[in-house]
Amino acid sequence: MLNLTAGTRLRSAVCDMEGIVIRQPDSAGSLACGGIPMLDAKNPASTSAERIAQAEPNRALIGKRYVDEESGLEVLCSKQGLGGLSFDGRPLTLKQAKPLPASD
Amino acid sequence: MNIHLFLEMAADAAPDRIAIGTRAAGITYGELLAMSRRAAQQMTNAPIRTVTYCGLNRPELPAALFAASLAGKPFTPLNYRLPDTDLKRLLERSAPSFTLCDTDIAKRCEGVADIQLHVVDAFFAECSRPDNAAPELADSAQDIAIVLFTSGTTAEPKAAILRHSNLVDYVLSTLEFFSADENEAALISVPPYHIAGMSALLTSVYCGRRIVSLPAFDPGVWVDTVIAEGITHAMVVPTMLKRIVEVIAERDVTLPSLRALSYGGGRMPATVIERAMDLLPDVGFVNAYGLTETSSTIAILDPASHRAAKASGTAEGRRRLSSVGKPLPHLELEIRDENEVAVPVGVVGEIWVRGSQVSGEYEGRKVVRDDGWFPTNDAGWIDDEGFLFVEGRLDDVIVRGGENISPAEIEDVLIANAQIDDVAVIGLPDEEWGEKIVAAIVVNAPVCIDQLKNQVRERLRSTRVPSVFVVRDTLPYNDTGKLLRRQLRQELAANISTSDAAVG
Asked: What is the pLDDT of residue B502?
């Protein structure tokens, strides 16, 4: 199973989406993009999964953070693709953060 | 997480966007990552404990910071303005080290044991050969990312420790990755050994905002650079803003590209910020309060609050222009008395803060409590709408006849006089009252001391009236604009006891 410790960089098997784990889930599970398990970004192996052609409605957007309330998993989208994120089949939800003005 | 990940993410998201330097000849995120990886290779297996940096702000500084992080070595920028003996002392404390320095500083570092001395530009030129053997990024959240020596205005400088987890949490909690558009550029004019200089590098890379840095601050060059480079964001200390405002007024220029100007690192006189807001009406001003030990900002007065305070019809509302605003939402902040019990609204006490960006740790000593709360040693109070007012270091509070008196509120009354350019209020030992209030003023025209005393009596109360006024040519500051109160106290104590130069 994919390592999901904080700092792990991930890539989608079905689109250009890339992300990074901000908070590790407190239970094991499968993190997917576009419904297909994500890959470790360091792993060059390709998959046989078919790439998706259209943006999903819950598509992960660059800079945004997505959470799974149940397990505590939090993923930051560092590169935008077409797919949305899910953990063990549960769609991740956008973490609303009030952006603060630049202070330094 | 390690702060180096920010650079890797930025280089992935936009390898060709300019990260550092001018629009015409800057370094891209892709190039910055390559520089960092090559430099890290030289550092990673060296028998060193830290990577120290003794030099000005220069384009290689961010690469040096990120390289040290990738190599797993604490990055320690040192104050090159210190006298040679003090600089050597800090180098010795950081050894064994890989030391990057400017050409003219190299000879000042000679003779220190266990340092591998490299001149910055020569080092980066040498390791410019492409190579793929960069070290693997370890899981290192609890490792030390940055060590900053506190300015040591009171004693031997303390080595404040910031871990990757502190800095990563600060950045993630306050900003959105790559939220800057391609035209944004931040001007950094605080030196590398200041926490704001370090945090600006991290936040700019994370936001995707181009970094332009001034080797050393000069108000004219600052204004020229903002105009020439289309600077959108900048951070300054109060003394810098005062001089910038003078240049803008004198040259009668506007800074159309500038959107956000934040300030911190000391008390901002109301006259300076009001004038700045008048001269730059389209700029969003942010007052940022934070400490080295808290990984930079913990409270901000945002642009809307600046405008509301300036336009307010009440004294209470206008006073908020001198507040540091509200604590960041992901932190907890309390005002506590000397028994460490929280005090009610409006009462002055010590500012305590808790949150994962707070390190509260020095080499060999932890100040943060087991429950995560950190006593800042700053005095402050919170008003009924939650605005935080910082009254300076706890040690600077004057205790006169059992009453705690904040120098800042007296200083605010006095500085409002056009004839007074600068002021500092301190306490000196007094047989009758424990401490007496002494005001040191710098004037540009004659002042009537009785009138000044009356002002303080009317605005505050009679117990706050300074018993002694001393007129001086200047007040002592360190190079980042912090008033050296201890030095001033010693000078005034000597001056008042040995001569009649004091007025009043």
From this structure: 46
Which residues of chain A are within 8 Å of residue B284 when distances are taken between CB atoms?
Answer: 101
| Within-domain flag for B451 | yes
What is the DSSP code (8-state) at residue A102? P
Q: Do the interacting molecules here have an ipTM over 0.85?
A: yes
Give the alpha-carbon dihedral of B485, B490, B493, B498, to 10 degrees: -140
What integer pLDDT is reported at residue B129 of this predicted model? 67
Q: Is residue B150 assigned to a domain?
A: yes
Asked if A63's CB is within 8 angstroms of B8's CB, the reply is no
The structural domain count of chain B equals 3
Alpha-carbon distance B137 to nearest alpha carbon in chain A (angstroms): 10
Give how far B34 is from chain A: nearest CA, Å: 17
Any domain includes B470 = yes
Report the gap between the CA of B304 and the closest CA in chain A (Å).
11
pLDDT for the residue numbered B497: 64
Q: What is the pLDDT of residues B181-220, one digit of tens each?
A: 999 999 999 999 999 999 999 999 999 999 999 998 999 9
- One domain for residues B75 and B142: yes
Nearest CA in chain A to B265: A104
- How many angstroms separate the CA atoms of B40 and B42, rounded? 5
Indicate yes or no: CB of B177 within 8 angstroms of CB of A101.
no
Average pLDDT, whole number, for chain A?
A: 91
Residues of B in contact with A7 (CB under 8 A): 1-2, 5, 137, 139, 141
Residues from chain A that touch B303, judged by Cβ atoms under 8 A, are 101
Q: How far apart are CA B331 and CA B407, in angstroms?
A: 27
Instruction: Locate A83 and state its tokens.
Output: 């797919």
A76/chain B closest Cα distance in angstroms = 8
Same domain, B405 and B384: no
Q: What stretches in chain B show pLDDT beneath 70?
A: 129-133, 139, 152-155, 497-504
User: H-type helices in B390-484, by residue range?
Assistant: 407-415, 449-459
Residue ranges making up the domain that contains B378: 330-394
In a shared domain, residues B4 and B82: yes
Residues B344-371, buried b or exposed e (16+ Cβ, 10 A)? eeeebbbbbbbbbbbbbbbeeeeebeee
Interface touch B233/A102, C-beta < 8 Å:
yes
Residue B469, domain CATH: 3.30.300.30
The reply to whether B44 falls in a domain is yes
